Amino acid sequence: MKAVLDRIKLSLAEKADYYQRIVQPTAKHLGQLLCVEKWAIDMFTEELIRAGCAATLSLLVNHLDQILREVANFSCWQVISPVDVCGSVAAIRELISVQNKVYVRPMILIVEKVSGEEEIPDGVVGIVTSDMPDILSHVSVRARNGKVCFAACFDQSIFRDVKSKEGKMVSISLGCNSLLFNEVASSNWSRYLNIFSGSRQSLSLGKKKFRGKFAISAEEFTTDMVGAKSRNIQYLKKRLPSWIRVPTSVAVPFRVFEAILLSDINKELAKDILSLSRLIDKGDLSKIHAIKEHVLQLRAPTQLVIELKTKMKSSNMAWPGDEGEERWDRAWQAMKKVWASKWNERAYVSCRKAKLNHNDLCMALLVQEIISADYAFVIHTRNPLSGDPTEIYAEIVKGLGETLVGAHHGRAMSFITKKSELDRSHVVGYPSKRIGLFLSKSIIFRSDSNGEDLEGYAGAGLYDSIPMDREERVLLDYSCDMLVTDKGFQRRIFSKIAEVGKIIEGLYGSAQDIEGVVKNGEIYVVQTRPQM
After folding, report:
1. What integer pLDDT is reported at residue 279 of this predicted model?
2. Less Cβ around it within 10 Å: N or C end of the chain?
3. What's the rounded Cα separation, in Å, for the pair 378 and 120?
4. What backbone phi and psi angles, to 5 degrees, belong to 140?
5. What is d(CA 206, CA 522) in angstroms, rounded to the nearest whole number?
6. What is the DSSP letter of 462?
7. Structure confidence at residue 453 (pLDDT)
8. C-alpha R_g of the chain
9. What are the Pyruvate phosphate dikinase AMP/ATP-binding domain coordinates in residue numbering (predicted)?
10. Which residues contact 271 (CB under 8 A, 6 or more apart)?
């Protein structure tokens, strides 16, 4: 029932956003021509929505949601990253609108929308949102890794009350399935500010060199050539039991991108990219889009094409060029998009926040077969909500995992399994995501930088992984989804996923953050990293 109400809420929110996009620009244009006061222009579309039946339905849904929570004894809070913090409160509409800000004092942001792709701004110690981010989305993982309090509030009256504290210094502490807010006397502010301004851990990126190879097979995955993402895949492939599958992979090593820039066919573009990079390093983030556009214009050296083709074919992977020049062009475009993501705003801001030298950041590409997934999952082998090392927490969505790690609207299905009872899982949340992403057999180029898995650095999801082909967006119907309707099927899949988590944690000897997919009941692992 809760998932159904969430789904209705999402539909209503999307309808409101649609009206804002369609109506508000015209209202603004006409209002300015007619000299209408700004406040009236700004409110026009909102008032239009309030006058419609959707507003009435929204009130009814919110009322039902409150009743359901009381009857089912649900908390109105979802504490994603449980950390006690203190900071000054600021209310904003979208987290992404402030991701490049640097706050000089500890801030607690009250946010209406969290997309899941943002970097948490420098100086932010807490985020409270009325949105529904997944527990294992990238932004949630970065919050936990960065020791930032992150929580979702599902009661609008409580959310408004928290929002009303804007401008005040408050402390947040954990209550019983909730957050407790207390105003801090001005006489105590200096103590918290001194704690906030304390020294941060010094981090540095290991410098990499071009080793003369444009493509390598999995057997050549070493620290000099590729990042932890690629090396972990190769490590698992040699050690996992046969029922846990790992997609075939090759890689484009570190510094190949820089070698391509130095080639004669790209000299002019390289000059422009260098100039833009210098401007960005001086703080002009407006040049980020331009530098990414320049990267997308690069031409592929013949040697890259030859070596990548050879390595893929020798690894029994399909070579896109065999299907025509247009297919290779798609693959090459996807590769360039991954390299261009070095200049993602969230990634650049994150490097700056960690005081990492962005010029030392280099990107290998992990080239993997895409499994045409029925479901995608993420496992944390230590329960991230309670910190309990005896419990596995997992989230699962229909289709590809981008709707989960990217925190697409709606909730993933989630469950907890005791490591001592792998065949008994407890469902803690049913799915409400409206859209699933599906893709037939293809190739994906995954970012594998020397910064994503740097110890002490919250680097999850900063850079892009790009499939060669465009995903199909499908409106989901859970009424015929076996994972929801067939308890036996659900138990088998959840048990397998939990066992995968336990096995991989055992191989590494530490808690792991694992991504994988389910296809025809078979389990594939596509990535693992330490769970911080």
Report:
1. 93
2. N
3. 21
4. -70, -40
5. 37
6. -
7. 67
8. 24
9. 330-531
10. none
Per-residue DSSP letter, 399: B
User: Three-state SS for 454?
Assistant: coil
Strand blocks (E) in 256-315:
none
DSSP-derived letter for residue 202 is: P
* Alpha-carbon gap, residue 359 to 281, rounded angstroms: 9
Contacts of 484 (CB under 8 A, 6+ apart): 413, 430, 431, 478, 490
The number of beta carbons lying within 10 Å of the beta carbon of residue 462 is 25
Residues 125, 179: Cα–Cα separation, whole Å: 14
Distance of alpha carbon 456 from alpha carbon 200, whole angstroms:
10
**Rounded CA separation 81/285 (Å):** 29
Q: What is the mean pLDDT of each run of 10 residues along the chain (532 residues)?
A: 71 72 84 85 76 71 72 80 92 91 92 86 93 86 89 89 93 84 77 55 81 96 94 95 96 96 93 93 90 96 97 95 93 97 89 85 94 95 93 96 84 95 93 92 92 72 91 92 94 97 97 95 94 85
Structure tokens at 231: 């090396």
447 by DSSP, 3-state: which? strand
Paired tokens of 378: 């993420």
Strands 169-174, 216-217: pairing is unpaired
State the Cα–Cα distance between residues 116 and 301, nearest whole angstrom.
Answer: 36
Phi, psi of 521 (to 5 degrees): 85, -10
Asked if 294 contacts 280 with a C-beta cutoff of 8 angstroms, the reply is: no
Q: Give, rounded to a whole angstrom, the gap between the first and last alpha carbons of the chain.
A: 34
Q: Which residue type sits at 231? A: R
3-state secondary structure of 70: helix
Rounded Cα distance, 358 and 295, in Å: 16
Helix axes 38-50, 53-72, angle to 10 degrees: 70
CB burial of residue 488 (10 Å; 0-12, 13-18, 19+) = exposed
CA distance 2 to 429: 9
501 with 508: CB under 8 angstroms? Answer: no
Q: Which amino acid is residue 110, in one-letter code?
A: I
Provide the 8-state DSSP code for 79.
E
Q: How far is 40 from 410, CA to CA, in rounded Å?
A: 32
CA-to-CA dists, residue 521 to 120, 373, 400, 485, 497, angstroms = 37, 10, 15, 16, 11
> Any catalytic annotation for residue 138?
yes
The one catalytic residue in 29, 63, 138, 358 is: 138
